[in-house]
Design brief:
The protein has eleven helices and no strands. It is mainly alpha-helical. Among the domains are: about 80 residues, Up-down Bundle (Four Helix Bundle (Hemerythrin (Met), subunit A)); about 40 residues.
């Protein structure tokens, strides 16, 4: 067993442990952190398989954006875990059947298939860059689906911004334009007041007089 195989088994073991803890841990914040660890291990395995683009995309998109946003939402909402766990054993048989079916399908997909390649094809595969070839496919053959996906994401971004800008009675926000236009005399007002004295000092002054 070489170093690459050893690293593969190490990353795979950590990924399986993190994935198992994601669905078994009680705290949703801890579950999100275990899912982040799972994504990191999957990215490392893809890097070992020389899929650099997919590995970096997994880290940047899922770990850097999706999971951070999900973790932020979970921490802000303060989800009641006990309410979510009600009826767990009621739906467990159906979930177990679906899980077994998924494992069976993955086993069929991942069964070793022997492919014989010519020396010319092996040489071309060794010299080619998967990132470059993926870019060629995305911007030539799949340019229209890419543009449609970009338009859908743009509409979703505008919708999210529009939902956050709705005027609500219970929302508290600050208008940046008013903060910029404010002047120093509007922030603080100096008021003249009579000096205050302590009662014992006032009584002493009265006795002296």
């Amino acid at each position: 067993m070489n170093v690459t195989t050893g690293l593969f088994y190490l990353f795979a073991a950590v990924m399986l442990f993190a994935a198992f803890r994601t669905i078994t841990v009680r705290n949703p914040v801890h579950a999100a952190l275990f899912l982040v660890l799972t994504f990191f291990q999957a990215a490392a395995i893809w890097m070992l398989l020389k899929m650099e683009f997919l590995s970096i995309t997994l880290v940047l998109v899922y770990v850097g954006a999706v999971m951070v946003l999900f973790l932020f939402v979970v921490m802000m909402m303060d989800i009641n875990v006990e309410a979510l766990r009600e009826g767990f054993w009621k739906h467990f048989p159906l979930a177990a059947v679906v899980g077994v079916v998924i494992v069976f399908e993955m086993a069929l997909v991942l069964m070793p298939i022997r492919v014989v390649e010519s020396p010319e094809a092996q040489a071309m595969a060794a010299a080619a860059s998967n990132t470059k070839e993926l870019g060629k496919l995305m911007f030539t053959k799949y340019i229209y689906p890419l543009e449609i996906a970009a338009a859908i994401l743009l509409v979703a971004m505008f919708a999210a911004i529009a939902l956050t800008l709705r005027a609500r009675k219970d929302s508290k926000y600050v208008d940046p334009a008013e903060q910029v236009r404010v002047k120093s005399r509007d922030r603080m007002e100096v008021v003249k007041m009579a000096p205050t004295v302590r009662e014992d000092a006032a009584a002493a002054e009265g006795e002296k007089s």
